[in-house]
Structure formats: C-alpha cells, structure tokens
Design goal:
42% of the residues lie in helices and 16% in strands. It has 250 residues and is an alpha/beta fold. The structure holds 2-phosphoglycolic acid. 2-phosphoglycolic acid is lined by residues 9, 164, 169-170, 208-211, 229-233.
C-alpha cells in the first residue's frame, strides 16, 4: 500500500513571517496525522529556517527545483548536495519551469538522476496543455515526457509522478475526476513499460491542478491516485490542513 502524499507547492509566495506562521499553523493542525505524508515546498530562502521549525514534527520539506551538479561555477543555482541536508523531496519539471524557464525532458532527466543519487525523492511533473488535450495528444505528450525524463534510471527507482494538466494549474478549472483517473492509469501503464509492474505499482502518482479542500475527496477516491500536489490552496493553512485530514480518512 502506498502512503498518501500531500505536497504543498508554495511557488514564489510568502514573506519570511508568513512562511514561518504557515508552517507553525500546519504543525498545530496536522502533526498528529501519521497516515499521510505531508510535504511543504517553500521558496529556497526559507528552507533552513523551516527545517529548524519542523525538526520536531512529522512534516517533510521539499524543494521546488534544483540544479543537477553538486558544486561549481553555476551562478544562481542550488545543488542536490546543498538541499539534501534539509529536503526529502524535490519537485522537478513543473510546467512553470518548463514553459517560463525552458526546461526540457533532457534537463529534467539529469536532475532526476542527481536527486536519486543524493537520496532526494524527485516528484516529476507531467501534463498536457489545452491545445494538446483538444487535439487528442494528451497520452502522446505524457508518454514522451515520461520516457525522456525517466531515461536510464534503476529498475526500482524511488520517484513520484505528478499529473498536472497545464490548463488546470492556477485556473480554478480542475480536471474532472474521470480525466484525472484515465490519465493516471495511463501513467502507471507507462511506468510499467519503463520499469516493471512492481515499480509501477509502488510509485506514488499525484494529481495537481486547482485542488482545494472542496474537491480533494473526489480525487483522493480515484483508483490510481496516491496523493495531490497543491499550489494555491497550500498557502492557506486551514485549506491545506483540511486536505490532509480528508486524505487521512478517505
Ligand atoms: P494550483 O497549482 O493548485 O494552484 O492549481 C498546482 C501546481 O502548480 O502544482
């Protein structure tokens, strides 16, 4: 049985006071829930301080991105060596990284390998844009993203996948549960093709895109889902806590 994973992607939001407050509210609200893995992904700059704050809790830290080299002349980048002291998870290939910062599958593949080598669990994001969906290209796009970003990994790689349709991110237009289920089932099939059925069955697959405390249950009841990647609603401690509570009792 895969433990449900609820991940909050704060993106480039919060000031330091809000970051500390949000984290301590979450500890108060959901620290007692052990049946769900709870991960917050704040901006890099707050990670060391939040690591101190969560040290006696059962929340985990994730990074929203990282570079693939351990150290060197890479101005402005953060390495897996630096992050592994603080983070158990890293989000890779988020559609905002792909579209705004031109990240491609080849780069995401390098980052994925670097994360695994440093014992950081990568949460690799895949998903189609609206014109790909409307042209019937969703499966094709996702298959290519998975084949290329998961190239040459170990058979039993410890990874998570997030299905995030681009048209559902930050728009309030979440994918229907049917679309989410159909695509996540397909993702598991491709994982089987890439790895084997054992790895496919134990890899957490998350849905992300306009998940709120109001619709989380619809997703968390789906057959092939193992959790959610949450943007906007993760900035509200009440909403994020509610989603974790729903995940714990569903
Ligand atoms: P959203 O973002 O929940 O605000 O749609 C999800 C994400 O980008 O991971």
């Amino acid at each position: 049985m895969i433990k449900t994973l609820i991940v909050g992607n704060w993106k480039m939001n919060t000031d330091s006071f809000e970051a500390y407050k949000l984290t301590s509210n979450l500890i108060d609200n959901i620290n007692h829930i052990n049946s769900v893995i709870k991960v917050i992904c704040p901006p890099y700059i707050y990670i060391p301080k939040l690591h101190e704050i969560i040290s006696s809790s059962n929340l985990y830290l994730g990074s929203q991105n990282m570079f693939y080299k351990d150290a060197g002349a890479y101005t402005g980048e953060i390495s897996p060596q630096m992050l592994k002291e603080y983070c158990e998870y890293v989000i890779l290939g988020h559609s905002e990284r792909r579209t705004l910062f031109e990240e491609n599958d080849e780069l995401i593949n390098k980052k994925t390998k670097a994360a695994i080598e440093n014992n950081i669990i990568p949460i690799i994001c895949v998903g189609e844009n609206i014109s790909e969906r409307e042209s019937g290209l969703t499966k094709n796009k996702i298959r290519n993203q998975l084949l290329n970003s998961l190239k040459n990994l170990e058979e039993n790689a410890n990874i998570s996948i997030a299905y995030e349709p681009i048209w559902a991110i930050g728009t309030g237009v979440a994918a229907t549960p049917e679309i989410a289920q159909e695509t996540m089932k397909y993702i598991r099939l491709i994982l089987q093709e890439i790895f084997n059925s054992d790895t496919a069955n134990k890899t957490p697959i998350l849905y992300g895109g306009s998940v709120t405390d109001q619709n989380a249950l619809e997703y968390l009841n789906l057959t092939d889902i193992n959790g959610c990647l949450i943007g906007g609603a993760s900035l509200d401690s009440k909403k994020f806590s509610k989603i974790v509570e729903i995940a714990a009792i569903k």
